[in-house]
Structures
1.
Amino acid sequence: MSSGDDYRFCPRCATPLVEREHAGRKRSLCAACGWVHWDNPLPVLAALVEYEGRILLARNAAWVEGMFALITGFMERGETPEAGVARELKEETSLDVVRADLIGVYEFTRKNELIIAYHVEATGTVQLSEELVDYRLVAPERLKPWRTGTGLAMADWMRARNLPVDFIDLPARIARPAAGGGQA
Ligand SMILES: [Zn+2]
């Protein structure tokens, strides 16, 4: 998940980029052809997946032991967020979306991302993609969100159901978390 903030050459004409004040802040741009690296935040879809009455949390192969989170992924060109959530869920767990309701939109400025979080009711048989190594099914009242990223979506979802929100701290060593999340 690169936000593209490490461009050194113009992707259009290959001229080395320069740092200049442009449209209100310092930006990398190409003095030759005028290309500007706007570096806008990238939308990330997140799914709080309800499956057989419990919430499915998954562990990415690159993450530390014990770290479980929501299903997340980038949108593809031309798809709606709802279609993107359904596609990601299918790719990563083989489950099908029965319904998807927006929980909210959350900043994740640390990675220059914007999280669009859904509560998804899913059906089918869980079969993880190679990206994921393990999953847990957690009773909603036992979820423990962390204080950033998708954890905030999880906490809002819990509050809306009058569930007590008990935050936990992120594990100290994180390989490459998609966008924060929650742990069982
Ligand atoms: Zn250029």
Note: The helical segments are 81-93, 150-160.
2.
Amino acid sequence: MTVNATTTSMASLYDSADLTSLSWLEQRWVAWYLYFDDPVLATGLMTFLVHEIVYFGRCIPWIIVDAIPYFRRWKLQASKVPTPQEQWECCKQVLISHFLVELPVIWFFHPMAEMFGMSTYQLTFPALPQMALQLLFFFVFEDMFHYFAHQALHYGPLYKHIHKLHHKYSAPFGLAAEYAHPAEVAILGMGTISGPLLYCYLTGDLHIITIYTWISLRLFQAIDAHSGYDFPWSLQHIVPFWSGADHHDFHHMAFTNNFSTSFRWWDRLFGTDDKYRAYKKRVAAMKNATKEQRAQMEKVLLAEVEADGLRAEAEVVRNAEKVKTT
Ligand SMILES: [Zn+2]
Ligand SMILES: [Zn+2]
């Protein structure tokens, strides 16, 4: 089906398809597009709903974890558990940004998808192995893009006017994953969306269902990285090059290290994880201390790293002032 959906009634686009051979999900897909009979509205609304349902659906378990003291033993900065008030304030800001900034932009999603030759209402869905390879490419591409763009956002004026908002929380929590300036959402969001667009442009073979899967996985990654918890079963203990909460929590606390999202290799390659690795080494050296001694030493270490981070942040803001006055 290659007819331009914007100029034709939706029902006629499925005339030649054998709807009985479709999977349950594919049948729901057809029903969705037929119900709205407007592909721009159907794709726009679905994109927005996928984002909202996955974002808040993934944040809710972390809100519950924060409310249960039993889980504090795995909290990375145990003395900084967000209060319900803080979570609600953050949630309100995220919702405002979703409705006022992301929703209008998402409405351009269908026209953009058609421009790049992406399949939207079309069937059938891609096979799982093909989808897995595409997802791997998107993960690697986004991580690379984010590493460099995030470092640029730590440059004085960009930090002061854009990225500082995201660093409001030195001990992040799930909901804070998308707590950011609209310009930051746009800049870093390019890393999420330009991988699929580039892939589609080069191969001409990409279904929007793969993008929804990608966006869902990327949201899981971002929310979990901001969760503030490192469990023994967290993915980074199974896949050693996965960043996880341990890696990104340190970025919020220490300010200067760990700029990537999903993987650790770029920070390792460019040495932007030196302070993080030194800190981990000192924590590991405490293994023979008693539980109380360890908790006390960890507290001192965390305070040192945080004080360093605050100094580094103040310096970036001071430099931004200098740029302004010269
Ligand atoms: Zn940052
Ligand atoms: Zn963050």
Note: The first helix runs from residue 10 to 13.
